[in-house]
Amino acid sequence: MAVVGKAVKRKEDPRLITGEARYLEDINIPGMTHIAILRSPHAHANIVSINTEAAAAVPGVVGVYTGQDFMDVNPLPCPWPAGGVENNLNTPRALEVEKVTHVGAGVAVVVAEDRATAQDAVELIDVEWEVLPAVTDAEEATFEGAPQLHENAPNNVCMEWDCGDQEGADAALASSDVVVKQRLRNQRLIPTPMETRGCIAQHEPVNGEYTIWMTSQAPHVHRLLFTAFIFGVPENKVRVISPQIGGGFGAKIFMYPEYVLTTALSKKVGRPVKWVETRSENYIATTHGRDHVTDVEVGANRDGTITALKVKTFANLGGILSTVAPGIPTTLYGRMLSGAYQFPNIYCHVTGVYTNTGMVDAYRGAGRPEATYVVERAVDLVASELSMDPVEVRRKNFVPSDAFPFEPNNNLLNGLSYDSGDYDKALDMALEMTGYEDFRAEQAAARAEGRYLGIGFSTYIEICGIAPSAWMFGEGWGAALWESANVRMHITGDVVVTTGSQSHGQGHETSVAQLVADELGVSMDQVHVQHSDTLGTPFGYGTYGSRSTAVGGVAVWRSLQRIKEKARAIAAHEFEADIEDVEYVVNEEGVGSVQVKGAPDKSKVVGEFMGIATSAAGGWSLPGDMEPFLDETSYYDPPDCTYPFGTHICIVEVDAETGNVDIKRYIAVDDVGKVINPMIVDGQVHGGIAQGVAQALWEGAQYDENGQLVSGSLMDYAIPRADLLPSFELGRTETPTPNNPLGVKGAGETGTIAATPAVVNAVVDALSHLDVRHIDMPLTPSRVWETIKSHSNGGNS
Amino acid sequence: MKLDGTYLFREKREQVWSTLMDPEAISGAIPGVEEFVPVEDEQHAWRAIAKVSMAAVSGRFTGQVRMSEIQAPVSYRLTVSGEGQGSIISGNVVMRLVERDDGGTVLHWDAEANISGKLARIGQRLIKAAANMMSKRFFGNLARQIREAA
């Protein structure tokens, strides 16, 4: 019985539910020391001197170190500078030496017998600072007279990047019937995974080997960065293990100073070293996301046809660059600005800017939510300007279903093209689920009573399965993006799959097992998926960009095809038949066997002891020079990305008295290609919508004028709560991608990409009768209330 | 961040002033003070250690207190800088005494405070309330000492 497409319960859940899973904090090694890091309380300051004497004298302190002690360790690399332009790169060191450019930068460390001693001793380190003026806004940082953060980045500009056709866009805007201009702020978010970051490092002086347990979404990439870029040791000297991970949302992809510091210290003190981030540290030392200021100009003809989209964005990169910071607001943002539409003229210019704020890098969706927000708000602005139904404007500009593969205009995607889609179909289904016509009547009736109902649409697309290595190389990415998998069948017929991708909540152990079970004809229980340890798994680039199934899953599938091929060859030899006459079949019960066509007695089950796996592993009778064992490794580099799409519809009621936004209904129709486990996809969509809605309504990192993070704890940073969200109504269309044999596209980010503009569009729609065109996020009650007041007659403005 | 307030004393201005100029009285009035010793070779400057509890930040702060712009018996400026618990506090307060017709004295205070580090991240929301509470305790303690001295 086939399991692909079924809501199979997750194999990893029993250990998570019973508390058996081992997270980084659960790991302890005999002789282990603990560290506490002294972090800058200033957003911008020179380090004049550091006195560590008092801290070093505390009983239980093993050692106290400053940046000077790690000058032999390279600065962290930034392997994704923006493509095709000059990048003024500045990256962190294990500890900063001369100057800090954001609150939270590490400048000294205490190693102690226990964590409490380390934390107490760190308070005794005396740093003399020369405090410098700070700037936190990306646009203001480029103004004349703004504080300068880095000598190599005049006016704090890291890079200027563009894509599309500037002249074409300008000309089209000049000749359009209407042009709408709007400034949009996509505020800074703090990822806030349930588990903070951490690292344990152990160095063995005898052979010079390091074992590093760390909260990593990409253990192989971390090992590569440790070895080739930072420490200059061979890859076989470092083993990275990512234990059970409590969420990442992108923030655990990157190399961080603390990982380098912990690892370097394990050698320095000759004992294992453990670092576990506190929540307050997480807020200032782990990457943030988004933080764009964008001016958008959109042109249209009277009939609703959009003629041009011109976008100018200041992207805040923080005080210093995280691992792939410049790639997020460029490739993953600008190249997506055609959305689900065939805009004829697009131009995007991005200025990446240093400011005295925390590092900014990929956060769930990474660039694509920012792009979708611009596109979906722009479409609504056009609809509002033309007094047209936003649904009609969307349909008018959609890429039609017969136009695929579709290459966005102005070479926006730099050679790639949308794989497949039926945007009208997803929209139709969502409208049907919503009862759109009835809603508009209800809205009119409610307005007559002074109640503000609104509906918002987001007919999004996204780029998933981020890959083609050659294409990414052209985008400035300094590595590749293929994935790998090894599949081997043990003598007993059990299957072990090792993958270079990593699971931190995505359910790889289940969805990959489903794939293997169906393809090989073995039971789910017989399939063991191993990941997250560089010893014993083939190299992979890790889990982000909704790529584990669309890239990593295909590598598994290719290994499975080779296994099946070899099984047939062995059976042909055993049954003395021609290989062409031997077929690999999986029956209705899901049992796989190799058999000679038309000879039922000449058949061998695959997944059992003394089956074909045993023949292969035994090796006593194999054809020609065939090697024993069913054991195949594949590396897969796709020809293009995948392009999921869908329609999200949000219905809100805005309280005219308080400005509070209540989400009445949330309807999401997503097309993520072929679905392996609908329950896992639903879970991904749910979590994504929650985060997307939260950006629209509640979340937002706040800095004061001195660069102090005011929203520095969960008391002041509003992450979503279950009781603030409605029960989501989910639908699905399934348009397989032709770009891979599984037809899968990727489902990890749809919610965050689609939800944010749907909610904002809904609130603006609810207030449209007051002539409200736009409100910047987050749409907190006070902000909405002020907007209502300033637009109502009573507000007198 | 700017903060201000007033405090009403029943006593005459000269009495209030002499207490305000008495390091021991000031030291006794600072909530949580553990140490208050003069800085060598410097007038009107003290090294202080105080235990402060604000929002989720609680512990010892070490710093300096300096008195300047003294205009007896009307006003002076107190400059405070302190460090501890991963936080830095700096600021100054100008205190001005105005005589009242009923023989009492009104103390007006205008303060400017800068807060960095952990306290800024997790305490900023509560700082105004906490500062008001602490100033109330400070002047309350002063008033008690003035009464006791009288």
Characterize the structure shown.
The complex is a heterodimer of chains A (797) and B (150). Chain A is of the alpha+beta class and 797 residues long. Among the domains of chain A are: 398-465 and 641-797, Aldehyde oxidase/xanthine dehydrogenase, molybdopterin binding domain (Aldehyde Oxidoreductase, domain 4, 2-Layer Sandwich), CATH 3.30.365; 482-636, Aldehyde oxidase/xanthine dehydrogenase, molybdopterin binding domain (Aldehyde Oxidoreductase, domain 4). Chain A contains 20 helices and 26 strands. Chain A has a seven-stranded mixed sheet. In chain A, strands 7-15-14-13-8 form a five-stranded mixed sheet. Chain A is globular, with a radius of gyration of 28 Å. Chain B has one domain (2-149): START domain (Alpha-D-Glucose-1,6-Bisphosphate, Chain A, domain 4), CATH 3.30.530. Chain B contains three helices and seven strands, in the order βααββββββα. In chain B, helix 1 (13-20) packs across helix 3 (118-149) and helix 2 crosses helix 3 (118-149). The model of chain B has no long low-confidence stretch (mean pLDDT 88). Chain B starts with a strand and ends with a helix. The longest helix of chain B is centred in the C-terminal third of the chain and has 32 residues, at 118-149. With 150 residues, chain B is an alpha+beta fold. Chain B is globular. A seven-stranded antiparallel sheet of chain B has the order 1-7-6-5-4-3-2. In chain B, a hairpin with a 5-residue loop joins strand 6 and strand 7 (105-117). At the A-B interface, helix 8 of A face strand 7 and helix 3 of B.
